[in-house]
Amino acid sequence: MRHPIATARTISSFILLPLLLALPHPQRADAQIIDQQRSKLAALVLVQEDLKNATKTMTIFDRNEDGVIDETEQAKLSWRKDMADYDVDRDGKLTHLEVALGFAQRRINAGVEQEDINNANIYLRRHDQNKNGQLDPDEITASGWPDEPQEFDQNGDGIITLSEMAERFAFMKGLRREMGIEKVDQVTAIRTVRQFDLDGDKKLDETEQKAAGLPKPGEQFDENEDGKLEIIEIATMLGKHRKETGMSKSDLARLRSLFESLDLDKDGVIVLNQFPDSAPFVTQLKEFDENKNGEVTRDEVQNLLIRQRKEKGYNDDQYAEAKRLMLRHDQNQNTWIDASELFAKPSEGQLAAETMRVADTDGDNRITLDELARYLATKSK
């Protein structure tokens, strides 16, 4: 029998829940515990890497190709002791889906998200010269990446696997968030160093910092007091500046993208006469040109973005939550929420009928996406 790979790839949490609930109800004293475990498994969201790892595991351990890893075949599984946690139907065997659930749970426990896996794949493609799906000791030495291999190599075998890379990236991401650094701050810092680091030391000295047009004095963020700014120090600066000015993550990304694509000579200034008036972005550039001198500086773009963000009255996260609630409540899909789509007795995750009175700021008896985002922003204060 072939492994049910194609079927498993289509499974999401909304399919998994009824599957788990339909399983035979245990008659033992620990029935309640088992039901709780099933509920936790039903809440798991599988990503492609979970299914890929499950496929690899099935290929290696399901030697008789009957579609399950039975008790005999489980003997060599490194996580055999945890098998019962993922054996949903308690038959002593592991299916492709149950193995995938095991990988998903361990991934989530490590804080690994899809973006961490994507980043790991980028570095793997860049440095895995023999294409065996891992970084071998000679590849690490030859490429010089990572700078501190021991921080990635969890089991100390000299090899860095995709999972070890993803887990390290997830750990560093969590550390940066504790410092107030978001992904956009980190990416902008990396690209800034890449563009303005003329001497190739992966840092910006005072001259390079001036050329980069950083928003704050460098000495305030030079933690090791070497007169230069590393990527993490620049990212910290950008995160602090973004929060102080009220810029959202998307605002900073827009600022970065604008100058990366339109600042042709990379001096921190976009010159309008370098583009034909017919170009679709020229009208927007003229909006940014505050003093109407035909040049757009970073400060001018930033100032307008800050004003626009204040006028909107909400950030990226609040807007994303508003989109989610709009999708849930806008039953007739007319792009707004009317009174009939609100709830007199709301459950968790539902908007109450009284929301109309507060959120409908223009009094047209409907809640638009912008109004809902502003309402959520007001609630969070």
Automatic annotation (TrEMBL):
GO terms for molecular function: calcium ion binding. InterPro entries: EF-hand-dom_pair, EF_Hand_1_Ca_BS, EF_hand_dom. It comes from the Bacteria. SMART domains: EFh. Keywords: Metal-binding, Repeat, Signal. Residues 1-31 form the signal peptide. Residues 150-175, 276-311, 347-381 form the EF-hand domain. This is EF hand.
